[in-house]
Design a protein that fits this description.
By secondary structure, the chain is of the alpha/beta class. The chain has 24 helices and 14 strands. The longest helix has 19 residues.
Length: about 650
Amino acid sequence: MRIKGRRNYNPLWQPTAQQVMIDRISAGPITVLLIGTCTNFAIFLMSNPHLKKNIKHIYIMGGGVRTKNPTGNLFTDYTSNPYAESNMFGDPFAAYQVFHSGIPITLIPLDATNSIPISKNFFNTFEQSQNTYEAQYCFQSLKAARDASQLGDKFYTRFFMWDSFASGVATSIMSKSNKPNGENEFAEMEYMNITVVTSNEPYGVNDGSNLFFDGHDIPRFNLTKGGVHSGHVQTGLRDPFCIVKNGKGKCQVINCPQHTGRFNFTTEFPYYKKVLYKPDFGSNKLGKPVVFDMDMSAGDFLTLFYLLKVPLEVINLKAIIVSPTGWANAATIDIIYDLLHMMGRDDIPVGLGDIFATNQSDAIFSSVGDCKYIKAIPHGSGGLIDSDTLYGLARDLPRSPRRYTQENSLKDGTPQKQPLALEVWKSVVKTLDPGSRINILTNGPLTNLAKIILSEKNTTSIYQDVYIVGGHISRGDWDKGNVFTIHSNEFAEFNMFLDPSAAKTVFDSNLNITLIPLGIQRRVGSLPRILEKLQETKRTPEAKFASRLLSMLYGLQQSHVLYRHVDKFSQEILGALVLAGDLKPTMQVKPVKVLAEGVESTDGQTMIDEKDGKLVKILEDVNYTAYYDLFANRLNDLKQSAVIGSFDEQRRLWSRQPK
C-alpha cells in the first residue's frame, strides 16, 4: 500500500501544466528536464516565447542518433518504424519545436541509455542495498517490471536505465557548472546537429494522414506547404505506407541517505494490520445471482453502493466485471476494491475486461490498438481525469488490501495477477447452485458481455435476464443522443457508441434483454432532487459519500461548461432499481437494432426495426418520485452498512496501539 500526502486532485482547482510552468519559469532562470513526450513544454514555448530567455538549459531523454541501423524502441511494431524512440514518436512535432527553440539542449538518446542494461549483478546488489524508503520503492518497481516481463534472464539484457540514466547525467552536469562541455560522472559528451523527423517524404502530398495540412487552406501553425512537416504522417502501427515488403519499415519518426524519504506506509502507520471483511451468510437464503458489468463512471459507483444495500435475500452480487473501454482507465479498478472493502464485501471478485473495444486492438500486439471510439471520452475535466480519481474523492475511501496486480508478479514467491473478466465469469458459472441462472446488469459498453457470448455459444441456459443501461430510441430529429464530443453522430448513446460491434453482438444474441434507454434515464436525472432526498438524513457513511459525490457533480455542472453532461451519471442508477424490483416499471416489447458499420456518424445508434430488430423489453415509464426516495432510503438504511467509513477512520486505527 502507498503512503498518502495531504494534497490531492480537485476538479477545476488542479493547476494545469501550463500554469505551473508559467509561474516557475517567470520567476527567473531555470533548467528543464524532459523524460517523456515534449507536448507540454512545446505548447509552453509556442504560447510564451517571451519567457524563453529564462530557460538556461534543457535536458531531454529520447531519440536515437548515432547509427544508421534501426535504433528505435517501438517494440509493438518494428516492421513499420524501426527508427523512432517512444518519447519522440509520441509527439514528433512537439519535439521538433523544442529542438529548434534556440535553447541549449543536452540529449541523452536511446543509443546511450541502451549501453547500460539492468544486469543481474546490479539487480542483486540493489536488492541487498535498500537503505532508504525511496530505494525500497524503486527496487520493488524494478522487480515488478522484471516479473511482469516474462523474459526470464533475458530481462537483464533488454531492460535499460532510460530515464534514471538521463536524470543522473543531468544532475551530474548541473553539479559541475564550472565545466563548459557537459563533463559528468556517467557519460562522454559530444556536440551534434540534430533535428526531428515529423513527416515522411514526399512532402506536400495530401493523402489524408497529415492533420496540419489536409483539409486546411492555410496550414495549422502557419507551416510551409511542401516543407518538412507536410509529408505523410504515420497513421498507425500497421500503416501500409510505412511497411516495405521484405525490408525494414521506412517511417521515422537512489540509495543515498541525503534527502531521503521521511516514512513509508508501515512507519507512517505503525499499527497497520491487513484485514479483509467478508460476510458470514450462514444459512440465509440468498437472492438471485447478479453480475454487475461497469465501466467505472461516477454513476457506476453510486449504482454499486445501491446493489450492496439491497437485502441479500433479494440480490446476491456474485461478481463485478469491469470494462476499461468507457469512462475510466483500467487502474481505476482499485477504487472498486476500496468501495467493496468499505462495505465489508471483500469476498466479491472483480474481473478486468479488454482494454480496447471489439476489433480495435492490434492483431499482433493486443496491448495496443485503435482509439476510434474511446476518443469520445474527454481526457481532461469532465472525463478521464475526474473518473480516475472519482472527482478527487477516491482518496477518502478506506484502503483495501486488494489492489490491481500486473500479470506474472510475485508475492512471497507466489504468482499473483489481476483476474480477468472472462476468468471471473467462468468462476461464477462453476459455483452456481443447480438450476440457478445469472442476472446481468450492464452500466457501460457491452465489450465484456459480447466476449462472454462469443466464448460460450449454446449456453443461454445459464442466463436469466440482462439489464442494459444504455441506447437511445430517438422519437424525432429533436430527440438527440448524448455523445456530445462526436458532433457528426447526433443520435447515439455513449454505452452503445463506445463499442458498437459488441452491442450488435449482444442484441443479435438469444438473451432476454431489458433495455433502460437514455430517454427514460433523463426523466430521473435531476441532481437537485436526488441530493435533496439524500441530505434529509445522511445517517450512513455510504449515504454521506454519495451525497458528497453528487454535490460535487452538481456544483461542477452549475459552474463550468465542461461539466454540463455530468447529470448522466445520476441517471445510471436506474438499472439497479429496476433489477432489484424496487420500482413498478412500465415495459413495452419492441424490435431493436444497433448500427455497427464502422461509420463514426452512425455507429452505436439504436433504433426500432420491424424487419431485422431483436425483440427486447424497453423501460417506458417509472414512478419518478419513488425513484429518488428509494435510492436515498436504501443508502440511509443501517442494514448492510459500511464496516469502515473512510480512510481517516483507518488512519486513526493504524496510528494507535490496539487495546
